Amino acid sequence: MSAEIGIDLGSSKTVIFSDSKIVIEEPSIVTVDAETYTPVYFGSKAKETLGRTPDTLECIHPIQHGLIADYDIAEAMLKHYTEKAFGNKIIRPKVMATIPTGLTELQHHSLANVVQAGGGRSVHVIEAPIAIAAGLGINFESAGGNLIVDIGAGTTDIAVLSLGGIVSCDSFKTASYDFDDIIMNYVRRKRNIAIGKLTAENIKKQIGSVSERPVEVTAIAKGRNRFSGLPEAFEINSGEIYKKLNECALIICNAIRKVLEVTEPDLLSDIKQKGLHLVGGGSKIFGMAELISSFTGLDVITYDEPEYSLVKGAAVALTKPELLRNVNYQERSIRELEIR
Q1: Is 80 exceeded by the pLDDT of residue 16?
Q2: Of 86, 158, 228, 251, which one has the fewest beta carbons inside 10 Å?
Q3: What secondary structure letter does DSSP report for 173?
Q4: pLDDT band for position 15 (cuts 50, 70, 90)
């Protein structure tokens, strides 16, 4: 078992990559005892309890918008996942963890400390666009512009890369989770039915789109009638929600445009020739690539399994440090914690 792993500690899920494969993929959710704050369930089992917990339990999202929201719970969660993935086969691995762009040094340290406490021997922290470029095999060491757009669950990262570093970038909180919230609010307002996040996420995956589909598709879901308080099934089609989802997607498109507006003309010329690299789970919603292309006038390059581009890139960057020689990434050592 390799002692080098990549970790994407994301708002939606935690993914660990090692030996050229995904070794664990679990929701970044922990159910805790409401009184003692002791973890009870992790991951998929914890996600099943969303909206279903008694007063004695509480669901915690320790990672929010790519940042550590609850240090202790994030540490416990990562320890649990690392042990589940590797057991006793690996001892204090060398880790590359990913972060959104534009964070402060304190936020770098916070993530590094969580990974360190979770079992990492030598912890490196890398900004998402750099990791993605490394994983996709993009030559970002030369003097040429490359545009990366990563639509995650809690954040969208946009960055122009050149000469091994980030030239211009933005990381903002409009991302895939916002599509879920839009669906929840729409059903509540138009159907007078309250639905949970899991139901909204399923509707998004089944019929969600940011442009009008040539053929409408329909989903059937269940919720609670706001007036009677009783459970109620309802039908919803893609045509009902695409305009609202489109408005949210246009916020992402505008953010891409703003990054391009502060990018040097010569780099823009390179990007026009090479195209835009679109990754992240949020990129999979129907019509996203076409909408971005129409809005920016750029060719949009998509990839298989775009939700794993980040964690795979982190593992590649760890094994090829020469890719990072021009990158100001944060490396953390735990020499002071080693047993002498």
Answers
A1: yes
A2: 228
A3: S
A4: very high
Count the Cβ atoms, other than its own, within 10 Å of residue 99: 26
266, two tokens = 């010569």
Whole-structure pTM value: 0.87
Distance CA 95, CA 112 (A): 10
Instruction: Write phi, then psi, for 227 (nearest 5 degrees).
Output: -95, -45
Nearest to 128 by CA among 97, 107, 104: 97
d(C-alpha 56, C-alpha 34), whole Å: 5
**E-strand spans in the chain?**
4-9, 13-18, 21-27, 30-33, 39-42, 57-60, 63-64, 67-68, 94-99, 122-127, 146-151, 156-162, 165-172, 193-194, 218-225, 231-237, 276-279, 300-301, 330-333
- Give the HSE-up count for residue 211: Cα atoms under 13 Å, Cβ half-sphere: 12
CA distance 149 to 229: 42
Q: Give residue-wise pLDDT tens across range 207-257.
A: 999 999 999 999 999 999 999 999 999 999 999 999 999 999 999 999 999
Q: What is the mean pLDDT of the chain?
A: 87
Is the distance from CB of 81 to CB of 109 less than 8 angstroms? no
**How many Å apart are CA 30 and CA 27, to the nearest integer?**
9
Instruction: Give the H or E element holding residue 131.
Output: helix 128-136
For residue 214 the two structure tokens come to 């040539």
Positive or negative torsion for Cα 136, 142, 144, 150: positive
Residue 121 has a CB neighbour count (10 Å cut-off) of 18
For 170, residues 6+ apart whose C-beta sits below 8 A from its C-beta are 101, 102, 157, 158, 159, 255, 258, 259
